[in-house]
């Protein structure tokens, strides 16, 4: 009795089979034992067979290269375009800031040194003798942002901008960028531009 195996659990499927056998041959239960699956070697063999069939099937399938979806490549292009646009946009302001603070002296720009204080007519003659011209008030105001401290310290400079009908002209303070009208007979510093 010690070697006797327990019969398999009865399920609803087993009951139907059992009941059908009883009707056919009379209920001889001892002869109707089902084979239990062997959990050892045959199960591993089945797994290996299934795995080999799957790998063969996979080899037979045509290999498709992974396609990059149109959406992702478009997104990359849009992000790249936006990045370049932002670089150009902010680069413009960085360059403008640099140019505003960098003096443009020399052959094609402003004089490196200011002329002595003179009347307005003498200032015009001074610039024409140097093959340059006297700047207007807006040019001087812009130049005040990038002029040297040495030139800014001089104070007021003549411009070509007229101030009314009396023959007065605008002077610009390079230290502050402010401008005001002055009679042409007053003496102020001169700086010329090409």
UniProtKB/TrEMBL annotation:
Keyword terms, alphabetized: Membrane, Transmembrane, Transmembrane helix
Annotated spans, Disordered: 1-51
Biased composition (Basic residues): 1-13, 31-44
Transmembrane feature ranges: 74-95
Protein name according to UniProt: DUF1566 domain-containing protein
Taxonomic source organism: Leptospira sarikeiensis
UniProt keyword annotation of Transmembrane helix present: yes
């Amino acid at each position: 009795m010690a070697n006797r195996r327990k019969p398999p659990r009865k399920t609803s499927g087993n009951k139907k089979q059992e009941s059908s056998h009883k009707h056919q041959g009379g209920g001889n239960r001892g002869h109707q034992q089902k084979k239990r699956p062997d959990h050892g070697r045959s199960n591993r063999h089945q797994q290996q067979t299934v795995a080999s069939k799957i790998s063969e099937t996979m080899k037979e399938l045509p290999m498709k290269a992974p396609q990059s979806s149109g959406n992702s490549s478009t997104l990359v292009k849009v992000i790249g375009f936006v990045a370049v646009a932002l670089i150009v946009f902010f680069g413009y302001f960085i360059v403008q800031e640099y140019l505003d603070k960098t003096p443009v002296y020399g052959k094609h720009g402003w004089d490196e040194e200011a002329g002595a204080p003179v009347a307005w007519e003498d200032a015009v003659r001074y610039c024409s003798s140097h093959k340059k011209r006297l700047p207007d008030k807006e040019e001087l105001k812009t130049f005040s942002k990038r002029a040297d401290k040495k030139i800014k310290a001089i104070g007021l400079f003549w411009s070509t901008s007229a101030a009314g009908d009396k023959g007065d002209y605008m002077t610009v303070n390079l230290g502050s960028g402010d401008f005001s009208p002055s009679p042409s007979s007053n003496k102020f510093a001169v700086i010329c531009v090409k």
